[in-house]
Design brief:
It is built from 14 helices and 11 strands. By secondary structure, it is α/β, with parallel strands linked by helices. The strands form 2 sheets. The chain has a 6-stranded mixed beta sheet with strand order 2-1-3-10-4-11, with helices on both faces. Helix 4 runs parallel beside helix 5, helix 5 crosses helix 13 and helix 7 runs parallel beside helix 8. It is globular and about 55 Å long. The chain starts with a helix and ends with a helix.
């Protein structure tokens, strides 16, 4: 009886040891991205199972789709997202709101791809013509929204909510197409693939591309963000993710034709609609995929958001916004 009890105890200890090993292998990395061309590194990586193959049994990758930056940052605040492909302004806003505790930018992801699109029958021939019109951005506080309100401010134009006569709406994703077709708005500052889809499907025309407003045409559209608590607890996983991010970015730039095909298939899976070949070409031609962190443009975007009033009364140094040690380690 005593020997049998010892045997049961020994089996239990062995089982507990095996269980601990199994639990150690089940770390989940929750990753957020948008179904946008500027998030192509994420979509292509997901389609190719790039990170799943890289991490193997070390971690499980759970992909989550968002339509705009502010809602994705809220998910990060709630601890539901560990790694996020997002626009610079929501990242900055999240950093400031959390007093530097919520996140860090660890790499760049994309530059370009944003444009101001007007309906061809809107009689908008220059930006100043939006006076008295209905204009949209994807979501309040997102990168295109800040760009829109900043340029309005420079041109002496103001939203109706602040005594002006430009009516501002926030319309995300495919709803932008519907809004154009139904003539609910006259212009939208948005990002690919919606730029090309507004042109191809909704009688839109590009008034100007955002790169025309930046020195040398370079500005960050998408950055790679990590939740700080996750980063502190799993530095090894973050190092490996950034390494994989660099690899998939290089692969895209070296295999452009195949990358576009894979992206379009994944976009169709996520949104129910692929881009027509011509507009796929146009979309990719407007974007540079790069892990360059492009700090100067991000900090300029932060300055603009502050001037607009999006950062509230918070005055926090942005010197800790970036942690490029992971990028430098790879």
């Amino acid at each position: 009886m005593f020997k049998q009890a010892r045997l049961i105890l020994l089996v239990g200890v062995v089982w507990l040891g095996l269980g601990e090993g199994l639990f150690a292998e089940s770390t989940e990395i929750r990753v957020g991205h948008f179904p946008n061309v500027t998030h192509a590194p994420a979509l292509i990586a997901q389609a190719k199972k790039h990170f799943e193959n890289s991490f193997g049994k070390e971690a499980k990758i759970a992909w989550k789709i968002f339509n705009a930056g502010p809602e994705a940052i809220e998910a990060l605040f709630a601890g539901a997202i560990d790694i996020l492909y997002v626009g610079p302004n929501p990242a900055v806003n999240g950093y400031v709101r959390s007093k530097g505790e919520a996140l860090r930018i660890v790499a760049g992801a994309a530059s370009g791809g944003s444009a101001f699109v007007v309906r061809q029958d809107s009689r908008i021939e220059r930006f100043e013509d939006i006076q008295g019109k209905r204009v949209a951005s994807p979501q309040k506080g997102n990168t295109q929204d800040v760009a829109l309100l900043h340029l309005m401010r420079e041109k002496g134009l103001f939203p109706r909510t602040k005594g002006g006569d430009v009516e501002i709406f926030n319309i995300a994703g495919g709803d932008q197409i519907t809004a154009f077709v139904r003539k609910q708005v006259d212009a939208i500052w948005t990002v690919e693939p919606w730029v090309s889809r507004l042109v191809s499907e909704a009688n839109g025309k590009i008034l100007f591309e955002e790169n025309e407003l930046w020195p040398e045409g370079k500005y960050a559209t998408t950055v790679l963000v990590v939740r700080k608590k996750f980063m502190d607890e799993h530095k090894d996983l973050v190092v490996k993710w950034v390494k994989g991010h660099k690899e998939i970015t290089d692969w895209i730039n070296q295999n452009y034709t195949e990358a576009k095909r894979i992206f379009n298939e994944e976009l169709s899976r996520e949104t129910g609609k692929a881009l027509p070949p011509t507009y796929l070409e146009h979309s990719f031609s407007r974007i540079t995929f790069t892990y360059d962190p492009m700090e100067s443009s991000v900090l300029e975007s932060a300055k603009r958001a502050s001037e607009i009033g999006y950062l509230g009364r918070n005055r926090i140094a942005l010197s800790g916004l970036y942690d490029l040690s992971f990028l430098e380690e790879n």
